[in-house]
Design a protein that fits this description.
alpha+beta, Aminopeptidase, 7-stranded mixed β-sheet, 5-stranded mixed β-sheet, 11 helices, 38% helix
């Protein structure tokens, strides 16, 4: 077995060193996700043959190693090392093009694509322009919000606003108790993100109206060309607030990134429908191997 260490914010430089040199598109590789959700899952890591190996012990997930590249046989050796302690260990986040460039991969692994865990990717410019018939309703709702609340303004999330953001999130969560199990875990992740704010490469914006939050979003870079939207909450009583925070976030990131990764739908029907209505440009596949 590898000598695994618990992942902490002191490892941010190491994570960035590897992920900036060998960038990925799956949101699971976001430094912010690795550390904030990682506190919930107990994420660990090791360095092995010039590669960064990440491990989620709660679900026995071995992340596809970050580095110059391993052979299919080496990947099998790596996974078998984990399976010696946990027979359920599984290699996840296999790059979509890896089976093509390594045709012997299926000699060593049984591959499976998990649709519920695919990331939704959108072109930033398209999310700002909202052009075309299919996005006309979104654009109208943004315009309607601006007309109804002409004094709204956008502020950056800073530590002095964290308590207000948490209270707003608690209210949002109470109104959606039907999906309580996931929402409670997500709320924990938001708490961790705010608590570690100054130690993470993370940003956020708040839409304010009459000194109250109407919506907010929290995001971070996943690679030089793509930002990940981790959390996005809005006031359901303010029509168009969901579309407005989406639009303002895209505006904030325009010129800095070409793509927005809006993460997965986890198989939740309402969330899937909401993400599909924005017409994703592509899905970042979630491929596993056993």
């Amino acid at each position: 077995m590898l000598e695994l260490k618990n992942l902490t914010t002191t490892d941010v430089p190491l994570l960035r060193q590897y992920l900036e040199r060998w960038p990925r598109q799956n949101c699971d590789y976001s430094v912010v996700n690795l550390l904030t959700w990682g506190l919930i899952y107990g994420n660990q890591y090791a360095l092995w043959r010039d590669h960064l190996v990440l491990f989620n012990p709660k679900y026995a997930y071995v992340f596809f190693p970050v580095g110059p590249g391993l052979s299919s046989a080496e990947l099998r050796e790596l996974l078998d090392g984990f399976r010696a302690s946990d027979p359920e260990a599984e290699l996840i986040l296999i790059p979509e093009n890896w089976p093509q460039t390594n045709p012997d991969l299926e000699d060593f692994f049984t591959l499976k694509e998990e649709r519920d865990w695919a990331d939704y990717a959108y072109a930033v410019d398209r999310m700002v322009n909202l052009s075309g018939k299919k996005l006309a309703k979104k654009k109208n709702l943004v315009s309607q919000f601006a007309r109804t609340y002409p004094a709204y303004h956008v502020l950056p999330i800073t530590p002095d606003k964290h308590e207000v953001v948490l209270r707003f999130t608690e209210k949002w969560k109470r109104q959606r108790s039907a999906e309580g199990i996931y929402l409670n875990t997500e709320f924990q992740a938001i708490q961790h993100t705010l608590a570690l704010w100054d130690e993470l490469p993370v940003e956020g914006i708040i839409i304010c109206h009459q000194h109250k939050i109407s919506a907010y979003s929290i995001f971070s870079p996943i690679n030089p060309d793509m930002a990940t939207i981790h959390f996005e909450k809005f006031d359901p009583d303010m029509k168009g607030s969901a579309q407005m925070i989406n639009w303002e976030t895209a505006r904030h990131l325009q010129g800095k990134y070409s793509w927005l990764n809006r993460e997965q739908d986890m198989g939740l029907e309402g969330l899937r429908q909401a993400k599909l209505t924005y017409q994703p440009d592509f899905l970042v596949k979630f491929i596993t191997g056993k």
